[in-house]
Amino acid sequence: MTLDVHAHDATAGGVLGELMRGSLDHCVKCTICETQCPFSNATPLFPGPKYVGPQAERFRVAGEPSPDASVDYCSSCGICTQVCPQGVHIAEINTQAKAELRKVTGVPLRDQLLARPTVAGRLGTPVAPLANWTLANKTLRRIGEATIGLHRDAPMPKFAGRTFQTWARAHERPAATRRVAYFHGCGANYYEPRLAEMTVALLEHNGYAVEVPKQDCCGLPAQSNGLFDDARGYVRRLVAKLVPYAREGVDIVATSTSCCLMLKREAREILGMEDDPDLRLVSSRIFDICEYLVAMHERGELKTDFAPIRETVTYHAPCQQRGHGIGKPAMDLFALIPELTAVELDAACCGVAGTYGLKKEKYAISMKVGSELFGQIAAAPPGLNACDSETCRWQIQHATGVRSVHPVELLHRAAGLP
Amino acid sequence: MTPDVIVVGTGLAGLTAAVRLAQDGARVVVLAKGIGATHLAGATIDVLGYDPGRVESPAAALPRLAEERPDHPYARLGAAAVGEALGWLGAQVAAGPLAAYTYEGGLEENLLLPTAVGAPKPTAMAPVTMLGGDLRRESLRVCIVGFRQLKDFHPMLCAENLAAADAGGRIEARGLELDLPVTGRADVNAQGMAQQLDDPAVRGALVQQLAGRLHADERVGLPAVLGLRDPHAVWAELEHRLGRPVFEIPTLPPSVPGMRLYTILRAALRAAGGRQIIGPEVVGPLGGGPRLEGLRVRVGRREDVRRAGEVVLATGGFASGGLALDSRWHARDAALGLPLAGVPADGAPRFVPGYFDDQPMARAGIAVDDELRPLDAGGEPVYENVRVAGASIAGAVPWKEKSGDGISLASGHRAAGLILQSARAAAAAGATLEAP
Question: Please, are residues B305 and B280 in contact by the beta-carbon 8 Å criterion?
């Protein structure tokens, strides 16, 4: 008998791992996932989630060469799993298959770097002007493309030159009866500390004491780049920082919707960490910030005396925000701001998928995937764009020139906070 | 931000209910475990095709069916409601984002359209792009055109069966396979081919390849891949350039006309302020009745609760997972665990030998009253604020009757109407439509 690598490899995650892979037997080849996959609809290099997932997975056998390398062009956006009416965990199977493939092909230096945003963050922050100049320098970017394969035009964020953690340590918490812990993620720490500050201000304005534990990466970029062992290490370290709050019954909020999803479900479903009791506890207590603000509103805790904003904002719910299955709470929140015109966009994906669109061989695909969204933004009345995920915001700004902000920024402004 | 109504399921029944409710001002959220059967079915609206012989006029046949089979969904709905729902859908399509693309037909007479395997299928309503294939004509010469790259449509098979299905020799049909290369791909599915034909250059190549190969009075039947963005324009352009009637034939999944219908209904839902959340699975009821308080919903590894004043259950039949049957013959409604009617009792025969015979399990589903509320074994409503719509309603054999679309459309439409009616009655009595 030939042993199946995923069924027996402990790295695939015991019972739940088998539940994920085993779900492929529910595939009836209905093709609904393929009608919705932004990537197979943009490039022939990715033959589609059904083809590389439930179908090819049957041929991936331990000790035998993988019959299919095209799974590398899967972005792990997760849309296939969302739309599957039969409950097949297509994206999870494909992300696991990608990691198995990487075990054979190796992980290039570029992907090793992209997988560790905190390393870049720590190195870049003290020398922010130099780092930002490097990233903006066309010649150096061309060299970067030629040497490590980071596309010369890929949207790279600017180092803020300070960290949110430093701000938070110096910040004096007002007395409050309600507590919440804040998982800000690497993006806010190194690139968008102002967003994290606005989040704290908004929560404090509504009577919450916001506690900011020391924290590192959630492991999502490592997972996306096939470095599962590293990803699990990141998850364990982060969970160790967050679990004391969950144990005390304190909710955890996150402004990075994809990193939040990592702790809610992906680490359990993809990295096979279902049996980690601390992760499960954190996972049951963590909320996307907009989800949480709507829940606060339902509990009567949200101050709704917002000042009018006479502007139009287009809103894009990123793929991984949709993976939360919570609808579009940002749209509910925008509806509370007088005179704000919020236009809900319905394009599937911006194309960047975290680090996917930064890669030399995938940049053009990424821009093509995003073209529908960019077109919708261009066709909308001029104004701001709002989006819950940092890499998607950077991609949107890069492609459209329209400023893209987290929904919290508009609420912060409408609340009249400094 | 509790909605007035949660609609579970995003197929024809669920979207119809949701759009109608939202257009009437209700706050509606559609929850669906995945995308529904729109993407799989041919998107013609089959109301009643066989009873048991071929039905020429559903308007004439429906009252008789309702009388003869009081347990049939159409007996709950009535012919008038079906007609009203067809009219409603026609109006939605005509006002939708695909411009001149319309649905034609009605209850008075069935069209007779070819399927992908060349079987004549009676249907009440169809996209305008399919009407040219109506086989009821005195005489008909057709050339069924396929593409080597589209592996899900076989023009020779379709043509051969069309000719064979016609005993009177009225239909002359032949198949023709073209070579329409798709850059970078060995083959494509129907969606991929439709994306190709959205490109004028590809349409030019198609017309060029057909030049000189068609007989003077021959119509052209093509797989239903004439574009996703503006199908009417693609179809009209081909009719014009080929100088003859052109018609689409539904293909194997993915169904391009089904995706168009989904696009139209989803746009209508959004325009009316309704919400749609794809991914969450309803795993059980909240509250024990007679009023359902809400739904237990699973997303990923987490279970949450969603409250609503009214629920429309439009989760589909066994094929869509709305109904589930395990290997020990336990049948259940997957979302709420409602009791099912029509399941053979222990020891009773579960199959009969002939595939097309009346199978004992075929009519299994949720029994409903005239208000589409689910009934228990004693015939009493399980919940007063749950309406069932679509393929999970007991009593029909849609694949034999060709009645599935009509039941889904009319029950979705009616479910919305009933909720709106009771909300108006409550408002008149001084209350408002609110969550418990």
Answer: no
